[in-house]
Amino acid sequence: MGDGNGDSNSWTYGEYLRLYDLLKLQGEGREISSDEMHFIIVHQTFELWFKQIIRELSEARGILSLNVVPEDKIPTAVDHLSRTTEIFRLMADQWTVLETLTPQGFLNFRDDLGTASGFESFQMREFEILLGLKAQDRVGSMDPIGTFRKLSKRSPEDVEILSRLEKRLSEKSLYNALMEWIERTPIMGSSIGDEGDEKFVSDFIRNHLEAYKMMNNESMKRLESNTSRDEIAKRFRVAEQSAESFLLPDGKIDRARAGLLFIESYRELPLLTWPRKLIDAFVELEESMAKWRHDHARMVERIIGRRTGTGGTSGVDYLDSTSRYRIFRDLWEVRTILVKPDLRPILKNAEFYSYSVDL
Ligand code: HEM
Q: Considering only CA atoms, which of 190, 168, 182, 193 is closest in space to residue 64?
């Protein structure tokens, strides 16, 4: 049955897609210019994509937060993330349609927007929370829940939005689900809970940190004649300290980060193929989001310059600072401390990571 629009067996194209309803929502009943109609359509298109993004990310989170993630489900999680990335890439390209709007063309109807702004896109806040963007990491202590709490006084729909966001906040984020899954990575053939696992992991970390130092020392040798030699040496020592506190925060093993380092270091091992593809999919997703945010800022700069936004932020500067958000921090940070293949700690229990064939 199709929502009272006829039987699903005999649906027309228009009924199936609910086009009769959908196409009445682009400023119908108001005398709007083609500029404004296009402004509405681009926003609505983005919001439809946001809806799909929330769905894809929820499904990926559903898979990764299982207590035991079946190996054959990882490709499905990767597919959900890859589709999300493609949507962000598509949306990043879509800003150019908006750039056909001249500054004057926008000023013609800007006053009608009042204080309405993309800042109030609750779907955007929902997927940011679902991904794992923390309130304290937002620019200028921006508080989305506070914004929607204020708006919730307006209508029952706004109350529903607030409770939807609060529910998301109380759930496990995709980032946490991912790191909990990575924590269970077998390191040097040893799994979490195995006898002696801590020793395997701490040896791996110590050996890796040694290798990292060695690599820095090699770089230092190459810079022997550099006049800022002392400064560079200091920088290397600071990098070594931060590598240590990344892997051993407060002197204790962080098994999830160690697992991440292990996957990134030995990424050619057959058993690590899907874990590394999954990690790559997250990195690609975050990169596509950052580029999308960046391109939004460039489009805004072109149309409104450095004006304050309709939502009351500093405008372009605010948007530019959001493009520096990194939700999957550890996935980025581990890149800084990798060593070249020759210097990696010797792999133990290599056979554990080969393909097994059931005969
Ligand atoms: C002429 C076109 C546009 C202009 C001038 C513009 C301008 C701005 C500005 C200045 C902000 C900062 C918040 C504020 O103070 O208002 C903002 C935020 C935002 N805009 Fe746009 N925008 C445009 C089109 C769009 C479109 C088509 C979308 C698609 C949904 C969009 C989505 C957003 C979102 C989600 C935010 C919040 C960003 C964040 O807080 O991280 N904008 N926009």
A: 182
**Which residues surround ligand 1 with Cβ inside 6 Å?**
42-43, 46-47, 98, 101, 106, 117-119, 121, 124, 296, 300, 303-304, 309-313, 315, 318-319, 322
pLDDT digits (tens, 9 = 90+) for 81-136: 999 999 999 999 999 999 999 999 999 999 988 888 999 999 999 999 999 999 99
- CATH number assigned to the domain comprising residue 102: 1.20.58.480
Q: Is 31 exposed, middle or buried (0-12, 13-18, 19+ CB in 10 A)?
A: exposed
Q: Report CA-CA distances (Å) from 61 to 26, 80, 162, 172, 338.
A: 34, 10, 21, 8, 27
Q: Is residue 321 part of a domain?
A: yes
- Summarize pLDDT for 222-252 with one digit per residue, the tens: 988 888 888 999 999 999 999 999 999 999 9
The helix-helix angle for 229-247 and 255-265 (nearest 10°) equals 120
Q: Which two tokens stand for residue 86?
A: 């493609």
**Cα–ligand 1 centroid distance for 336 (angstroms):** 33
Q: How is 19-64 classified by DSSP, letter by letter?
A: HHHHTT-SSTTS---HHHHHHHHHHHHHHHHHHHHHHHHHHHHHHH
Helix, strand, coil percent content, the chain, rounded in steps of 5: 70, 0, 30
How many structural domains is the chain composed of?
Answer: 1
Residue 8 placed within a domain: no
User: Is 22 inside a domain boundary?
Assistant: no
Ligand 1 centroid to 304 CA: how many Å?
Answer: 11
pLDDT 10s digits, 155-178: 999 999 999 999 999 999 999 999
Task: Using the structure block, give the residue that is written with the tokens 């931060």.
Answer: 242
315 within a domain of the structure (yes/no): yes
Domain interval for residue 327: 32-353
* Phi and psi, residue 29, nearest 5°: 90, -15
43, two tokens: 């926003």
